[in-house]
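User: For a reading group we're discussing how well predicted structures match intuition. Take glutathione-specific gamma-glutamylcyclotransferase. Before you show the prediction, I'll give you the sequence so everyone sees exactly what went in.
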Amino acid sequence: MPEMSEITLPSVTTAKGDLWVFGYGSLMWRPGFAFEERVPARLVGEHRALCVYSFVHRGTPEQPGLVLGLDRGGACRGIAFRVAEKNRADVVAYLRAREQVTSVYREVMRSVWLENEARQRVSALTYVVDRGHVQYAGRLSLADQHRHVVQGHGQSGANRDYVTATVKAIEAEGFRDTQLHQLAMMLHGDAHSLHAQAPDESRDSR
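Assistant: Thanks. Here is the predicted 3D structure of glutathione-specific gamma-glutamylcyclotransferase, as structure tokens, for the group to look at:
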């Protein structure tokens, strides 16, 4: 199925109807906005990756942390939030203030498939990494990821807490993200502290 076209989104705040927002990282466990419905969802065409150097929320320019972005290829399971039309402008303003502090993401609309009884396809607002931005980290080795996460601490707290909370949110939805789980096990220093029985998302996420 052809990918939904990317556009600049000045009208996203004024469009009619409810707004869907796709969360794949901290939005899964700390959305920070009012929503009417929360539905597990799947986005095809990008995958979740620790590919963004954090200069503000989880690190500094001198000691960058690492946060998640949607990068090219594969698929990503996350959460779709339905926002009431009356709250659309406020929620978009909130998301822009939260996600676009350094403009490392591109604000796009993407097709996501809701994993509910209806299994419908909706268009959702989400944030995709800008590969041309100085904070784009690309594909880092697990050792490099670990080094940045251990050192990272920013306005929103310790980078390791961000990784741990995201892994717990993923587990709560009943799946795994192999690289994040490996990194979390390294951070915990205990390979038995995380569940190993959940289905592995990595088969379709790269």
